[in-house]
Design goal:
With about 375 residues, the protein is of the alpha+beta class. The chain has helices at about 100-105, 120-130, 165-175, 235, 265-275, 275-285, 325-345, 365-370, and strands at about 5-10, 45-55, 60-70, 80-90, 95, 105, 110-115, 145-150, 190, 195, 200-205, 215-220, 255-260, 295-300, 305-310, 350, 360.
């Protein structure tokens, strides 16, 4: 067993308070307002927690990875399932539990994000945790939902260093506080469009005349492409983009997008919401390439739509939003996804990890300069 040097396994790696969000730079995506924290937890009841796994070993290998946990509500998700749907934009990845979600239209565990080779250990730990919860003493089947990105450049992914204790730490850390972003949890070791990626989040709130509903998005970014903001080719202007000099490199992936809303939507409608998130990925610069696993999970927190684990009622009666009222939610999903991706880059810090490999964070000043470059300054 190799000796570990300066281990650090924490509920969440500290953020750099000097790193800006996109709106701190005076740039806004779309016309809709954000929620109070401009993050996933602006959807009432949603909780997010991280556990970052950062450890160095004597042979130069290193762990730069973690777990991110998302709770749709705090009341026992297995006993009170929520409507949900998964859309696969490109299926080069693993999203444990997604087929049952689409078959039954409900989500019955927290959503966990991690690295590719830890997906299965995390799923097992999530099953164990669920079986321990009050009211689950006789449960014989659990559908854990676990998504992943491959962080094997900065993280010694073959070590499979994420443990059940890390899963439980992320779950315990879950709260309604503003989402920590950047190099935290499942975003510690990820890379995006030539820069350091990570966890990003954003939200949109519809005006009261359109129902006043909130849409929140959280992303785990780890894909190739050419960063763009509001049509400005940031990646090209900074000389960091896919197919530069027409040399095709092995691209890495993927991106997991989690969309939450309090609008009363069923699984079919949530699938329509999920299919709009790739528009936000494209707006930020993703081409959803061959090697990228791009999965979108959308769920509704509307309390009247929760599915009870056991019930004496043979039928259900629910009230849903009409389909012709969905378009504002589509726009909110697209815009929040795009902004969440950009926030993941702006909040990330430069990371040195496995075998001394380093991925540089984007420089906010250079980002802003590139945004304003061209025919006069952008507004």
């Amino acid at each position: 067993m190799l000796a570990a040097l300066a281990p650090s396994t924490t509920p969440a790696q500290s953020q750099d308070s000097t790193r800006p969000l996109l709106r701190d730079l005076g740039i806004e995506i779309g016309v809709l307002a954000t929620g109070p924290t401009n993050s996933l937890v602006d959807v009432a009841g949603v909780q997010v927690g991280h556990c970052s796994v950062v450890q160095d070993f004597a042979d130069g290998s290193a762990l730069r990875t973690g777990v991110t946990a998302i709770f749709p509500h705090p009341d026992g998700i297995f006993l009170e399932k929520v409507p949900a749907a998964v859309h696969v934009a490109n299926g080069f990845g693993k999203f444990v539990g997604s087929t049952q979600v689409n078959e039954l239209g409900v989500l019955e565990t927290p959503i966990l994000l991690t690295n590719t080779l830890s997906t299965f250990a995390v799923a097992d730990a999530l099953v164990a945790w669920t079986l321990e919860q009050p009211g689950c003493g006789d449960v014989r089947s659990v559908n854990p939902l676990v998504g992943e990105c491959n962080d094997g450049y900065l993280n010694d992914i073959r070590r499979r260093g994420v443990t059940a204790d890390h899963v439980r730490s992320a779950i315990r850390a879950a709260s309604t506080d503003a989402v920590q972003q950047g190099c935290v949890g499942a975003g510690v070791g990820t890379r995006c469009m030539g820069f350091k990626g990570g966890i990003g989040s954003s939200s949109r709130k519809l005006p009261d005349s359109l129902g006043g509903y909130t849409v929140g998005v959280l992303v785990q970014t780890n894909f190739g492409g050419s960063l763009a903001v509001d049509g400005a080719p940031i990646g090209e202007r900074l000389g960091n983009y896919y197919l530069k000099d027409e040399v095709v490199r092995q691209e890495h992936g993927s991106c997991i997008v989690v969309v939450a809303t309090d609008a009363p939507l069923d699984a079919r409608q949530l699938a329509r919401i999920a299919r709009r998130a790739p528009l936000g990925l494209a707006a930020a610069g993703s081409s959803i390439s061959h090697g990228s696993g791009d999965y979108i999970l959308a769920f509704s927190t509307a309390e009247q739509l929760r599915m009870q684990y056991e019930s004496d009622d043979a039928t259900e009666s629910v009230t849903l939003l009409r389909d012709d009222r969905l378009s504002p939610l589509f726009q909110a999903t697209k815009d929040a996804t795009c902004e969440a991706v950009i926030n993941s880059l702006l909040q990330a810090t430069t990371i040195t990890g496995h075998r001394g490999r380093t991925t540089e964070a984007i420089d906010p000043d250079e980002f802003l300069r590139a945004y304003r470059e061209g025919d006069g300054e952008r507004p």
